[in-house]
Design goal:
Nuclear Transport Factor 2, Chain: A, elongated
Length: 180
């Protein structure tokens, strides 16, 4: 009797585990035409090349080359709330900074993430964003060095020009390197 019960339980257990899945119907299978875009997706790698080219220009001191990919209405904003508006003003800011304060600057250990934001999740703009993280090594005219990681988010307009930059950095090592 014991064997019979053990055999019967084994049979029931196997039968329960091998239930075939119900056939999918049109009601349970999403149609290919019903797919809506994800809130964000990877963007064209060409935006990474634009970012790399810009940092190479900045390293060489070529602010005009760096700014060639900026829109006339660019807004450059830092995490502390400071900002500069308009291409002429942003170019002047960086020419003054690069020419009179920074002796040399280099960027390394890049991470690039080009994104297409289809549905903004909060206050960000829809469209193409290039997110980047990199190490910065700058020597200031004071002779002091500044090294830190910087995160930059760049938004591209419909003409593939950068119209918004948000840069996250720590001002403390920058201020220390600028002090005489």
């Amino acid at each position: 009797m014991k064997r019979f019960l053990v055999g019967m339980m084994s049979f029931l257990l196997l039968a329960a585990c091998n239930n075939p899945k119900p056939e999918e119907t049109a009601e349970t299978t999403p149609a290919a035409t019903d797919s809506k875009p994800q809130p964000a997706e990877f963007a064209d790698p060409k935006y990474t090349e634009i970012g790399k080219s810009g940092l190479a220009s900045m390293s060489s001191g070529d602010v005009d080359g760096w700014s060639s990919n900026w829109a006339d209405n660019i807004v450059w904003q830092w995490n502390n709330g400071d900002s500069v508006v308009g291409k002429a003003a942003v170019v002047k800011y960086w020419k003054d900074r690069r020419g009179s304060m920074i002796d040399s600057i280099s960027f390394s250990n890049y991470i690039w993430l080009p994104l297409k934001v289809n549905q903004p999740q909060s206050t960000e703009q829809a469209g193409i964003w290039l997110l980047s993280w990199y190490a910065v090594n700058a020597k200031y005219k004071t002779g002091k060095r500044m090294m830190q990681w910087i995160h930059t988010a760049q938004h591209f307009d419909a003409n593939d020009k950068i119209d918004r930059v948000v840069q996250y950095l720590d001002r403390v090592p920058i201020n220390a390197a600028m002090a005489k």
